[in-house]
Structure formats: structure tokens, C-alpha cells
Design a protein that fits this description.
186 residues, 0% strand, signal, 7 helices, mainly alpha, 82% helix, Butyryl-CoA Dehydrogenase, subunit A, domain 3
Length: 186
């Protein structure tokens, strides 16, 4: 009987802890432009994030990196496609360059954020300023990618498929930036 009581108590504590951690992610994601996407993408990491805003920002960057790498792979395959016309191939190639730049900025941000919780004061603010600048630039890169598709010459399935990929990346990047900005004011 004592073992059953202890087991039930342990399960109740674990359930409550998981709920509180999930609530932390949900409440933190309210500062983002895409809160549902934020909760959906970060909830699988709730046990690691716990109530740590630095971990929340790190995982937001990691899911952004994953989404960016997926878009990079998609664009790389698209540039190798035989059915693109020259204008489409050029626009996709330019977009791929922008995504590559964006990926570099996200990777730099992850490296910078990894050591930020060991510093204080001005040094902390300097590191966080770097992260903000790189993620803002990554978002600009993603928007610039779409500029190549704004003319009449490109439309249809190429434009639609690239727009979907890049919009997804931009949503993740926007959410990461919002969580980073929120971490700064905590």
C-alpha cells in the first residue's frame, strides 16, 4: 500500500511539474507574433527548457536553424531542377544565397547565446545585442529572398513553393527574435 501511495504521489508531482513547464512555454510564447507555432515547436523541449529564459531562447534558435536548413535543402534541390526557366533559376539561386546568409547568422547567434548566461552587466548586453542584430539580419535576409519573386516573370508553383518555405522560416525567426528580446528585459 505504501508503494502504491508513493507511486501515485510521484506521478502526481511529475504531472504537475510537466503542466507548469508547459504553461511556462505557453505564457512565454504570448510575446511572439506566431504564438501557436511557438508553443507547438518548443513544447517538445519543455523538460529541458523548464523555466529558463536562456534555454527558451536557445531552443527557439535551434528550431529556427532546423527550419532554415530544411528550406536550404529545398532550395538547393530546386536550383538543380531541369524545368526552371532562367529567371526562376536566378531568383531561386539568389534566394538560396540569402538563406545561406541567414543560416550563418542563426548559427552565430546560437554560439553567442551559449555562453551568455555566464556573464553579467555590460558584457551580457553586448552578447545579447550581437544575437539581436544577427537574428534581425536573418529575418531581413529571408524577406530579401522573396523580393526576387515579386515580378510578373515568376509566378505559379515555383513562387508558391518558395514563398511557403521562406514564410515558415521567417515565422520561426520572428518568434526567436521576440523570445530573445523578451529574455533581455527579464
Amino acid at each position: 500500500m505504501a508503494n502504491l501511495t508513493l507511486t501515485l504521489f510521484t506521478l502526481a508531482v511529475l504531472f504537475l511539474a510537466g503542466t507548469i513547464t508547459a504553461d511556462y512555454i505557453t505564457s512565454s510564447c504570448t510575446v511572439t507574433t506566431y504564438p501557436r507555432l511557438c508553443v507547438q515547436s518548443l513544447s517538445p523541449y519543455a523538460e529541458t527548457i523548464k523555466h529558463n529564459p536562456a534555454e527558451l531562447a536557445r531552443f527557439a534558435l535551434k528550431v529556427t536553424l532546423n527550419q532554415s536548413e530544411s528550406a536550404q535543402s529545398f532550395l538547393q534541390k530546386l536550383t538543380e531542377s531541369k524545368w526552371l526557366n532562367s529567371r526562376e533559376r536566378s531568383a531561386v539561386g539568389d534566394c538560396l544565397e540569402e538563406v545561406n546568409d541567414s543560416l550563418d547568422r542563426v548559427r552565430n547567434s546560437i554560439r553567442e547565446l551559449n555562453g551568455v548566461d555566464r556573464v553579467k552587466g555590460r558584457e551580457f548586453l553586448l552578447h545579447m545585442s550581437n544575437v539581436q542584430t544577427w537574428i534581425s539580419s536573418a529575418l531581413t535576409d529571408e524577406n530579401t529572398c522573396m523580393d526576387g519573386f515579386s515580378g510578373q516573370e515568376i509566378g505559379g508553383p515555383v513562387q508558391s513553393s518558395v514563398r511557403i518555405q521562406i514564410s515558415d522560416v521567417a515565422h520561426f525567426t520572428s518568434n526567436a527574435l521576440a523570445l530573445i528580446n523578451h529574455y533581455l528585459i527579464l
